[in-house]
Amino acid sequence: MKKYFYLIIILFLGLFYLGCTRNNTAVQQSSTALKVALKSQESASAMLDMMSDQSNTAEAKERIDPSTNVDIQKYIGVEKINIEEAKEELESAQTDLFEFAQHKSKKNQTKVLEKAHKAVKESSERLRILEEKTKVIVDFLGSETFSKSEIGAFFRPGEFHLIKEQVKEARRLFNPVVEKLNVFAGRYKDQFAGLKGEIIVTGYSDATAVEKGSALYRDLSGKLLEDDQVSQPSQQDLNQKLSELRALAVKWLLVEIIKQRKKDDSALININVRVLGRGEKLPRDLPENTAKNDPRRRAVTFYSVVLPLI
């Protein structure tokens, strides 16, 4: 796509030195510039299609969170619409230029050439911005965005608050999650105003039953009723909520880490933290025959996300 971009610029600049009297050279130059610009838009569209496939593959292989793929596909959809609009403008200018060259139009040559110049210039600028944005996504899809931590040591059995004495160790363990995202985003520090950072924290629990009548049962059933309008929770419901609440506790620790890092360096990218609960589902990379009470099931996973704003 770059070679078309530079060729368009060269052709475009050349048009300013050709004058506005009727001459075949100016018309031919404009016609060539429009053809190159249209081809570059088609190449950009094909590039976005490849990116879409790459993102779908990354989701299928669990390298990115499904919601991130949704964001990427949304971004691609918006950019595809922009490309179609640019192509319409280029084709309209191309039609006017053709009719003028065939003496089928009474339009002024200056106006016809100015329309072609404007369409080519705006098309080139759109491609430049698109290329900068897509660099971030291509780099993101090619990087390691996933990590996992077992959390059994940070929560007492039947609780979803971090053990006070373990907070320091938890901070040490989870700090690299934030730093990895900052390091990645640092490659594009000149574009921070156009980027969004996000960490998706997903909690998992084992399948140990929550005893009815216990303090944990009352806490979880109360939150299920309040948050999800579930009045008769199953064991799966209870463990789902437990995994969500433990992930929420990890979230607030990450938020504190992010705030401290921003305090130390205000130029860092803004990072949002989102929480999901997966209950008794198996965390990534655990075999299907993993025992229901295996402590490795009590885990949180992290997906780091850096994407351009739409």
What does the largest sheet look like? 4 strands, mixed
- Beta-strand fraction estimate: 5-15%
Helix content: 55-70%
Structural class by SSE content? alpha+beta
Outline the low-pLDDT stretches.
16-21
Give the second-level CATH assignment, the architecture of the largest domain: 2-Layer Sandwich
Which geometry do the CA atoms define? Answer: elongated
Entry keywords:
alpha+beta, 7 helices, four-stranded mixed beta sheet, 4 strands
SSE blueprint and pairings:
Layout: H1 2-15, H2 24-60, H3 66-101, H4 109-141, E1 146-150, H5 167-186, E2 195-203, H6 215-228, H7 235-264, E3 271-277, E4 299-308
Parallel strand pairs: 2-3
Antiparallel strand pairs: 1-4, 2-4
Helix pairs in contact: 1-2, 1-4, 2-3, 2-4, 3-4, 5-7, 6-7
